[in-house]
Amino acid sequence: MQNSNLIQCTQLIPQQLPFDYQGNALDFELGAGEVTSIIGPDYSGKGHWIRAICGLEDQSSGDVSIKGINTLNLSAKDWTMTRMKVAYLHEDTALLSAANGLSNVLAPALYHHLDKNLNKQLLAEKALDLLEEIDPEINLDDLPAYITKDHQYKIAVARALLLEPEVLALNNPFAHFNSDSKHQFQTFLEKQVKKGLSLLIVTHDIPYALKISDKIIFANQESVHYFGSRQAVLNSDMPEVIEFINRPENQARA
Amino acid sequence: MSVTHLTSTLTDWANTLTGWPGRKLINNVLYVINLVTFSSLALRDWFSKNKVFDSRSYSTTVAQIIFTGVDALPTITFLGLATGFIFTFRLISISNTLGSTDDIINLLITVICLSAGPFLAAIIIISRTGSAIVVDLGNMKLHGEIEALENMGININDYIVAPRIISTAISQLAITVYFTVIALLSGILISALFVNPAHFDFIFKISDSFTPHLMSIFIIKNIIFGYVIATVACYNGLRVQGSATEVPQRTTASIVQSLSFVFVIDSLLTFAIFV
Q1: Are B151 and A92 in contact (CB under 8 A)?
Q2: Buried b vs exposed e over A171-187: b needs ≥16 C-beta within 10 Å?
Q3: Which residues contact A131 (CB under 8 A, 6 or more apart)?
Q4: How far does the CA of residue A139 sit from the closest CA of chain B (Å)?
Q5: Cβ(A115)–Cβ(B58) under 8 Å?
Q6: Confidence band of A79 (pLDDT split at 50, 70, 90)
């Protein structure tokens, strides 16, 4: 039977957590069009959790399946498929330094022969439309060294989205944004979710995470907790969750 | 210090000293195996997914050929002219004292076409292309560009390594052909103009004497040189981990290793062909 979950984790514990983790394992499913946020205090290994969920980091226990395919011992073909279906970006995801903005967006799509169905001209137009939607002010003619960090990140997102992934996994995506560009980018993400994209996001912006997420994973150095809804987080009686949510910096600003 | 302890220490030193060449040899053999495996995997991925020049890596291949081959032409032209004047012209102009015309032609083919040409081209490619590949890949690795490509399902062997190996091998061959032609023609023309117009015939005599057997040696030698230089450069570039200081260290290592490999391969081929 075809598994409807895009990502399914059972008894998952990442292998490379930078501390001695003795807590529980994570059981988690991500369906189409769902938004899941991973939140928690600093240095709680959230980046390792998202990488393990995406199949990019080995697990010390458990299994991860992407579109029904176990990520252990993937064939080269399955590796390519999983990486195209689950796009992972961290805050400093690098662009090709020798290519300008537009070439950066097009390069992976051309590598994966997406121009077979859509010729190169149409693919370029699609890339330009996507970039226009993310931020019309991005300078696409310059090399990455001459592009601001937030624009570099937006180009990286466009590059990933041009591959038509089903899951966009973002690790600390707002790190380089000022408040205006952050709001603009968040609006863009919400539009993509409405179109059916699943979002897996590690963020320090707790009000935003609570606002957009269908499911929430709370991780700290002792344990990991999975909540099936944002209300479940707000109603949680776990002291570490209550303490974290109630921190002044995690409260919604007026 | 007791006698037993002293004996034990001396035995350890002796073992260390006598074991050093063995360990060095094993390390070098393992390094060669690593390189062969690395390049074989890269070419396997290239040929399993690509037509010879697939669109996905076409631009990388062409750019590398332009950098390695076309951009090096001024330097190669200068070296070819110098070699023509120093070797070809001198050998032809003293041909009467050296022996028969056939001897001179054999000497020119052996020295210019099969030895100096490939060797000088290899040195140019090691210093220009080899070092550039290490710096390029080292910086890509350092800045996370390689990781980002892999995270998008791009096979680095197919997209980055194989195009560089293949285009460097092609460029080495092309550069040597160009160098050899310039070195022979310039020497013969100078000799014909300033010593004896009959020396112009050397052009046709050398062409006639360049048998398919010699031609195949010429081609194989150059392709091996280019292949090895690019493999060593890519391997060293991708071994950079997290520190910027590794890039110049790897570049130096790549240049030294490439030069050593070219010397060893040249010696082995010369021994295999001519002895």
Answers
A1: no
A2: bbbbebbeeebbebbbe
A3: A101, A102, A105, A138, A140, A154, A155, A158
A4: 20
A5: no
A6: very high
- Give dist(CA B171, CA B66) in Å, integer: 8
Radius of gyration of chain B (CA): 23
A57 → chain B, closest CA residue: B151
CB B226 within 8 A of CB B197: no
pLDDT in tens, B105-142: 888 898 889 988 999 999 999 999 999 999 999 999 99
pTM for this model (two decimals): 0.86
CA B59 to chain centre: 23
Instruction: Tell the residue number behind the tokens 């094993």, with chain if given.
Output: B26
DSSP string, B211-222: -HHHHHHHHHHH
E strands along chain B, which residues? none
The shortest CB-CB distance from B56 to any of A76, A110, A160 is to: A110
Per the structure block, which two tokens stand in for B29? 């053999």
Residue boundaries of the structural domains of chain B? 53-274
- B55: nearest CB among A56, A110, A163: A110
From B172, B257, B223, B232, select the one nearest B39 (Cα to Cα).
Answer: B232
User: Is A193 near chain B, with CB under 8 Å?
Assistant: no
- Name all domains of chain A by residue range, CATH numbers in brackets: 7-250 (3.40.50.300)
- Alpha-carbon distances of B235 from A215, B36, B257, rounded to whole Å: 44, 10, 11
Q: What is the DSSP letter of A145?
A: G
Burial A131-170 (b: 16+ CB within 10 A, else e): beebbeebebeeebeebeebbbbbbbbbbbbbbebbbbbb
**CA nearest to A59, candidates A43, A70, A75:** A70
Instruction: Please give, rounded to a whole number of angstroms, the shortest distance from the CA of B228 to a CA of chain A.
Output: 25
By three-state DSSP, how is residue A200 classified?
strand
Q: Which residues touch A164 (CB under 8 Å, ≥6 apart)?
A: A84, A114
| pLDDT for B171 | 92
Between β-strands A69-70 and A59-66, what pairing exists: parallel, antiparallel or unpaired? antiparallel
Please tell me the number of Cα atoms within 13 Å of A124 on its side-chain side. 7
Beta bridge partners of A87: A168
ipTM: 0.89
Rounded (10°) angle between helices B55-65 and A101-111: 120
Both tokens assigned to A111: 């590598």
Instruction: Name the 3-class secondary structure at A55.
Output: coil
